[in-house]
Design a protein that fits this description.
By secondary structure, this protein is α+β, with helices and mostly antiparallel strands. The protein has one domain. The chain is 60% helix and 14% strand. The protein has five helices and two strands; from the N terminus they run αααββαα. The chain has helices at residues 6-16, 18-43, 50-53, 80-85, 96-123; strands at residues 55-63, 66-73. Strands 1-2 form a two-stranded antiparallel sheet. A hairpin with a 2-residue loop joins β1 (55-63) and β2 (66-73). The longest helix is centred in the last third of the chain and has 28 residues, at 96-123.
């Protein structure tokens, strides 16, 4: 993910310290991940609604200066990979990959906006 003005954001994050900047980063990345999750829910095939109900955002790695979230499905929708990729018996109906392809810029913008808002609140 590329963020415009990343150097400026890095300088601001150093001013507020690791704890505050880490919280700002975690919240910002979660906002971006939520943009992708919401789109995946809209794109997911709906037969019973179980697949849509079990798409989630989950923190995977949180370290100083680094945050990673997964957008995926819970074990209750274990069959999602067969829908996404297809099998020799059923045609693929991708919903996760098209979500990323169409919403990655919106997710990046959500991260940028939230980081700027969080840091502006702290620095003012």
């Amino acid at each position: 993910m590329h963020i415009e003005g990343a150097d400026e954001l890095k300088r601001a994050m150093k001013k507020v310290g690791d704890r505050t900047s880490g919280l700002a980063l975690r919240n910002a990345v979660e906002k971006g991940a939520t943009v992708l999750k919401d789109e995946a829910v809209l794109r997911a095939p709906r037969k019973t609604g179980n697949l849509r109900d079990n798409i989630e955002v989950q923190a995977k790695r949180i370290q100083v200066g680094r945050v990673m979230y997964d957008i995926g499905v819970t074990a209750k929708a274990w069959y999602a990979r067969f829908i996404e990729k297809g099998t020799k018996y059923i045609a693929a109906k991708p919903f996760l990959r098209p979500t990323l392809d169409t919403k990655k810029e919106d997710a990046t913008k959500a991260v940028e906006d939230e980081l700027r808002r969080s840091l502006k609140d702290v620095l003012e």
